[in-house]
Amino acid sequence: MAKGRHWVALWLVAFLVTTWLVYARQTAAIRAARELADLRARRANLDGHRADLERRIRAAESRAVLVPRAQARLGLHLPSDSEIVLVPAPSGSR
Amino acid sequence: MARPAVRIQVVQFGVLVGLALLVGRAAQVQILHGRRWAEEAQAQRTERIVLQARRGALYDRHGTPLAVTQETYHVGIAPNELRDPAADGALISRRLGLTARTWQQALRRRYAYFAGPYSALEVQPLRSVRGVHLESVLNRFYPDPAVARATIGRLGDEGLGASGLERTLDSLLSGRSGAAVVLKDRAGREYESPARVIAPPVAGLDVVLTLDAELQEIAQRALDDALRRMDADGGDVVMLDPGTGEVLALASRQRDGSARPSAFTDTFEPGSLAKIFAAAALLSLRRVSPTDHVSGEGGKWRVLGRTITDEDPQPSLTLADAIRVSSNIAIAKFAARLTPAEQYATLRDFGFGAFTGIEFPAEATGRLRPPSEWTRPSAASLAMGYELSVTPIQVAMAYGALANDGLLLQPTLIREIRSAGGGVRYRHRPEPVRRVVSREVAVALRNLLRGVVERGTGTEAALTNFPVAAKTGTARRVVNGRYAAGEYTASFAALFPADQPQLVLVVKIDNPHKGSYFAAQTAAPVTRSMLEQALAARTVALDRARLSTAAPRAAAAPADDEGGLVPYVVPWPYQPDSAGVGPRRAVPDVAGLGMREAVRTLHRRGFRVALRGWGVTEHTWPAGGDSAAAGSMVTLFADPHAADRVRSRGAAPPRRGPRR
Fold it and tell me: Is residue B565 part of a domain?
């Protein structure tokens, strides 16, 4: 009779261990899925941030913005071709 | 009352029957109808979702993004799930830009949906708010929407290309959607678990256009300024590289501010712009010598029942004079030496009356009637640029043939096609259409055009240090099939520099109302302004090594001509022939090199370098192995993790020397 109880106890423990393993595995998977979703969200956020910054940089360095500011604040003007210096690359550097 | 044994047997029998029924039913469900129930269960707890493919990006020739795809969001709000409707509502309204009234209306609904689309930045603070459900969706984004809008085009509601290059390149850009299966609960909500991917999405190909964003901006601004100043109905600017047929800038604008692609679709009579093509036929067929003169007829000549007039009457003109002062009388007289078939064939060879073959969904052929449909004055009219309608892109390609020593090329807007991993799938090579005139004739024609800018109608386009070859054209406009009184199209076609041209510019101004309507005073100064800006620009696709030798006028000019101004060129170190014209050369493959080493390598090969990012070199534009003019700009893209990607593409590990 005692031998039978041991078997029952053994099966019960095996069942509990298996159940716990399934539970732990699923918990870990859900945690990983959440982390993955968080990382994706962060990446999307950073991508959006980068795109926003790039757009602002391009707008800020566009001629429509730069030329009037350079003329008004620094007294610069668009150069005529006679004011443009082209420095040819030394032949040895080619 | 039955005996206990009998009762037990009855119970046992009942249990047995019950068990048998249970087993039978189980067999029916599991075996006979198993497939159907399994499918139903599968459908109830799983959902097949479409994984959107990233649409390929469009870049300018230096790698500046013109159209990219980004993750954006639709936002759903379940008011009954909000923990603190007042505080959450304030946050949601602020992030989504909702008015108080809209928010109150949303609260009264069971589920409010805001399509947006909202950027990741806008929805970031909402991610942790209970009751807010974000649905990600890939969306097209134009970093600078004003740049080449008509050329690039837009997407339709279905996310497919609806106009412009977005439409032409749709099959390349759109990629292939994938599919995945997700688990869902009884209420149909997705479980927070990874999806089972059935087919991964395949991203679309990236396309590098031939457009130069900086030249494009120069062209657009110059055109806008000109239209405003002249109170004109509209206009177009085309810039292209005559050596490759690559279109560098395309600007079109109408009076109402709209920008339809009229450089491809709208035709006009080119007027005097076409005189050079009559000259091309005359020189090719040797029907005229440099010393041949015709009478200027005092500026008024009656022939075949019509009167031809000149704005600048001359007593006697050579062919060079006819082009220089744009004499209608002289070119009509010279063109009489050609047969209609010869005149027609020359115009046809230059590409008029036919599609150019550019990758744009809509293009007009213009009109060039065959000689069988001509009337008696048609030959003279065609020589003067009437009875012929052309598009600005056709004019640019025809002048490009003159710049390219007589070889007509097919124009293109596509420079490279790349896979999402960066591999080059296609790279444009110049595609000759036909030889239109011999090299000698092309040189002679360029000299005629040079005379226009130096001493003729195009002096307003002249630069101090760089020779320009060009032709003016002022033509009456056709409205409702008749020439409208007082309405003109002013146009200007220029080759820069006059020797070995690197740039062809065509400027067209429709019906200028303020000031002069002549191209010499309208379109020519716009051309000069654009050329000056292009010369001063940092990244514009000009070969400055060649340009620095293309300034004999400056060398010959007296030093005190421009008091106090800096000389145009400083050879460094001084070598009389140091800036000799070099051929196009191969861009070294520097992928995988550190930035410093990559920049050194590119400098040693004679290229200028623009840096994007930092770390290890990932790729360059133009790509390694492609050819580019010495002195031109190579954009170097670097990334701290590029070494891994370069390795994964099968390239060598980070290294210290370039591949040649």
Answer: no
Residue B124: its pLDDT value, please?
85
Q: Which residues of B touch A63 (CB under 8 A)?
A: 217-218, 221, 533
| Total number of domains constituting chain B | 4
What is the Rg, in whole angstroms, of the alpha carbon atoms belonging to chain A?
A: 35
**Cβ of A5 under 8 Å from any chain B Cβ?**
no
**What local confidence, expressed as pLDDT, does residue B548 receive?**
67
User: Are B498 and B533 part of one and the same domain?
Assistant: yes
Regarding whether B323 and B287 lie in a shared domain, the answer is yes
| B514 & B591 share domain | no
Long-range own/partner contacts, residues B78-81 (CB < 8 A, 24 or more apart)? B78/B110, B78/B111, B78/B131, B78/B133, B79/B106, B79/B107, B79/B108, B79/B109, B79/B110, B79/B111, B79/B112, B79/B131, B80/B110, B80/B131, B81/B130, B81/B131
Residues B28 and B58 in one domain: no
Q: How far is B544 from chain A (nearest CA, A)?
A: 7
Minimum Cα–Cα distance from B225: chain A residue: A64
Q: Looking at the structure, tell me whether residues B299 and B409 fall in a common domain.
A: yes
* Residue B164 domain-assigned (yes or no): no
For residue A35, CA distances in Å to A41, B105, B631 come to: 10, 35, 49
Q: What distance in Å separates residue B382's CA from the closest CA in chain A?
A: 36
- B332: domain CATH number? 3.40.710.10
Would the CB atoms of A48 and B120 count as touching at under 8 Å?
yes
- Among the partner-chain residues B124, B136, B536, the one whose CB lies closest to the CB of A79 is B536
B591 and B511 within one domain: no
**For B631, which residue in chain A has the nearest alpha carbon?**
A89
CATH number at B107 reads 3.90.1310.10
- Which residue among A41, A52, A85 sits closest to B568, beta carbon to beta carbon? A85
Largest CA distance in chain A: 111
Size of interface A-B (CB pairs under 8 A): 131
What are the extents of the domains in chain A?
2-73
Residue from the list B119, B549, B604 with its beta carbon closest to the beta carbon of A93 = B604
Q: Which residue range(s) make up the domain with B482?
A: 213-542
Q: What is the reported pLDDT for B97? A: 87
Selected for mutation to probe chain B from A66, A82, A87 (highest B CB count within 10 Å) is A82
Q: What is the number of alpha carbons within 13 Å of residue B244 lying toward its C-beta?
A: 23
A18 CA: distance to closest CA in chain B (Å):
21
Residue B457 lies in a domain: yes
Going by C-beta distance under 8 Å and a sequence separation of 6 or more, which residues neighbour residue A1?
none
- Chunked into runs of 10 residues, chain B (660 residues) has average pLDDT values of 81 94 93 90 84 92 90 88 85 87 85 86 86 87 88 89 93 92 78 76 94 94 94 95 95 90 94 96 93 90 88 91 95 95 96 94 94 93 94 97 95 93 88 94 96 94 92 90 89 94 96 91 94 85 71 41 36 37 70 86 81 82 76 80 58 39
| Residue B12 shares a structural domain with residue B67 | no
Q: Does A87 touch chain B (CB under 8 A)?
A: yes
Express the helix, strand and coil content of chain B in percent, nearest 5 each.
35, 25, 40
